[in-house]
Structure formats: C-alpha cells, structure tokens
Amino acid sequence: MDLRDLWRPGGGRSGLTWRLVKVLIDGLPPESLTKTATRDSLTPDELADLASTPSVGHGPWSHLETIAAAQYDVLQQIQYVLTVVNGGKPDTPKPWPRPGVGMKRRIPPAARTYLDDLAAQHEQRRRDAGL
C-alpha cells in the first residue's frame, strides 16, 4: 500500500482509498503508536465522550487482555475454594467474558435447511460407497 495512491486518479496501483485507510487504522491494536497518539491528542472532554460511547462489536483482544482475563478467572477460583474450605457457601464463579466465547449463534432457517440437506447427501454417499 502506498499513501501516494490516495492522490492518484483511480486510487493508483494499490487501490488505496480513504475508506481503506480508516479500516486499516481501526484494525490496529489499542496499544499501537497510531491509536496512542490519537488518544494523546484528545482533550479531556473528548476523551470522556469517547469513553462513554459504547463500543461496537467485540473486537479481538490483545495478548495482555487475554492474560488479564485468565488471571481474573484464577483469582476468582482461588477465592471460591478458600471460602468453601472455611465453611462458606459462595456462588460458583463465572469466567470473565471473552469476545466470541459463549455467544449463541443463531442459524437462519434457510441455512439450517441447506446444512441438513448437505448432511443427508453426505450420508447417502457414504452408504452408497459402503462406508
């Protein structure tokens, strides 16, 4: 990708557009230099507005966020075990929610029908082949 393509007619050889630049910047990890510089350039009021805006989607986690969630889960389990050993009756700890985990995916009826037909065809081929 060449940033000069933004000013070339038709986007240049790489086809870089302003939209693609935005998509690439939005995809950077939160700890990247670009996102850090952007946050540092905001006024306190702008930063407060940004923090109060709900995030869209469940983007990928950085390695540190994954480790922090795992540590939280382990600490909750240790606290649970210590409370039980000392005679308490705590609620079973729930793991820290991770993006994409535990979400129930709803399959549209048309897709379910297609998958069922595909599975039936596969099973018929296996029977025909004597498997």
In short:
The protein has 131 residues and is mainly alpha-helical.
Q: How does this structure look, described?
A:
It is a single chain. The chain is mostly helical. It has helices spanning 18-26, 33-40, 44-52, 63-85, 109-128. It has 2 domains: 3-52, no CATH class; 63-128, no CATH class. The termini are far apart.
The largest sheet, given as strand count, sense and whether it forms a barrel, is: none
In terms of DSSP E residues, the strand content is under 5%
Mean pLDDT across all amino acids:
83
CA gyration radius, whole angstroms: 25 Å
What helical percentage do the residues reach?
Answer: 40-55%
Overall body shape: flat
Number of domains: 2
- Low-confidence stretches are none
- Alpha-carbon distance between the two ends: 51 Å
By DSSP, the count of extended strands is 0
Individual helix count: 5
Order of helices and strands: HHHHH
The helix-and-strand class reads mainly alpha
